[in-house]
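Section 5: illustrative case.
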């Protein structure tokens, strides 16, 4: 089930809709000329290939863990970890564990 685009000042729960499901989803929450926010849910073993975006980017791990490839190194993100990326920085992600609550 896709989330609708979020309106200014609207509160949404990014973890809702993930309970009891290992469904893979990529949903654009907000898309404007200056800003895009996505919620991406991956199954264990699935990945996001190396890519870059023109602006700055952030990654928040809501559940499980993901290995993030950044330039010449790899870092593991766990639940609650947040990452800030430079403009145009190449990155990739490999889902290590998808945990359903």
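Designed sequence:
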């Amino acid at each position: 089930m896709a989330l609708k685009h979020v309106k200014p000042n609207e509160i949404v729960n990014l973890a809702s809709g993930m309970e009891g499901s290992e469904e893979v989803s990529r949903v654009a929450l907000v898309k404007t000329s200056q800003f895009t926010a996505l919620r991406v849910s991956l199954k264990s073993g699935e990945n996001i290939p190396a890519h870059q975006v023109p602006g700055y980017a952030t990654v928040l791990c809501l559940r499980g863990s993901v290995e993030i490839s950044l330039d010449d190194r790899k870092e593991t993100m766990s639940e609650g970890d947040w990452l800030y990326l430079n403009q145009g920085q190449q990155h990739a992600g490999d889902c290590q564990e998808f945990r359903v609550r």
